[in-house]
Amino acid sequence: MDYESLKHILDEKGVKLVAVSKTQPPERILELYEKGHRLFGENRVQELVPKYEALPKDIEWHLIGHLQTNKVKYIAPFVALIHSVDRFKLLREIDKQAAKVGRTIDCLLQFHIAREETKFGFHEAEAIAMLEREEFGALQHVRICGVMGMATFTDDRAQVRREFRSLRQIFERLKADYFADQPHFRELSMGMSGDWDIAVEEGSTMVRIGSLLFGPRS
Ligand SMILES: *Cc1c(COP(=O)(O)O)cnc(C)c1O
User: Fold this and answer.
1) 36, 98, 197, 210: least CB-packed within 10 angstroms?
2) Which residues constitute the domain of residue 18?
3) Three-class SS of residue 148?
4) Cα 110 to ligand 1 centre (Å)
5) Number of compact structural domains in the chain
6) What is the domain-level CATH number for residue 41?
7) CA of 211 to the centre of ligand 1 (A)
8) What is the 3-state secondary structure (H, E, C) of 170-218?
9) Shortest-distance Cα residue to atom 5 of ligand 1
């Protein structure tokens, strides 16, 4: 699907497009940049940092993949949103590194909604336990802006829909119980190339799309 058509559909619904540029060379990113796109997602720190350094500074970079604690320091100065917070230890490290560079870093809590065990993320009860910890309340340099999840990689669209719906429900419950007075808790990051349309129907506010925009990854 071409960029303009996809962007048009998403704009009409008020859904943000994170162009997932992992494995793509800077030239491919610049092609979209020249069409006016500024929001890109990468899943590896080792790839994100050199791209940040090489490319225009008004790009908004999102980290969407699993993040090791010892790598947070490399992205803390510039990352706009971390989608993949899946444990308290990581959040504490993001808070520490953000403080060092005088920033507050926006984060999403990643939930495990798929059948595959390979995928990362909190279960709801674990996230709630974290939100109720005193140490969580003490963090001052992170801002939780919503949730993220990946559906099972399957042709069973009804299954995918159920999983997105379960993430939406988690989002709504957390919002009501822990973030009711925090308007920035509003992002529901779900939907990729194969399932973005279902995700949008189920209330996604942010889709992460790679191969549909850039073609298959090598
Ligand atoms: C690679 C990736 C995507 C995009 O995948 P496509 O199927 O190419 O759209 C989205 N989210 C995460 C976390 C990814 O790692």
Assistant:
1) 36
2) 3-214
3) strand
4) 14
5) 1
6) 3.20.20.10
7) 8
8) HHHHHHHHHCCCCCCCCEEECCCCCCHHHHHHCCCCEEEECHHHHCCCC
9) 210
Determine if ligand 1 sits within 6 Å of the CB of residue 43. Answer: yes
- Amino acid of residue 198: I
Atom of ligand 1 nearest to the CA of 84: 13
Q: Can you read off the two tokens belonging to residue 39?
A: 């929001």
The predicted pLDDT at position 191 comes to: 98
211 CB within 6 A, ligand 1: yes
Q: Is the CB of 19 under 6 A from ligand 1?
A: no
Please say whether the beta carbons of 75 and 41 come within 8 A.
Answer: no
Under the phi-then-psi rule, with left for phi > 0, alpha for psi from -120 to 50, and beta for the rest, what region is 122?
Answer: beta
pLDDT digits 0-9 by tens, 106-148: 999 999 999 888 778 999 999 999 999 999 999 999 999 999 9
Among the ranges given (97-101, 109-113, 214-218), the one the predictor scored with the smallest mean pLDDT: 214-218
pLDDT tier at 5 (50, 70, 90 boundaries)? very high
What CA–CA distance (Å, rounded) separates 154 from 26?
A: 31
Kindly give the distance from the C-alpha atom of residue 208 to the centroid of ligand 1, in angstroms, as a whole number. 6
| Residue 165 buriedness (CB in 10 A; 0-12 / 13-18 / 19+) | middle
Per-residue H/E/C for 102-133:
CCCEEEEEEECCCCCCCCCCECHHHHHHHHCC
Only one residue has tokens 């790598």, namely 71
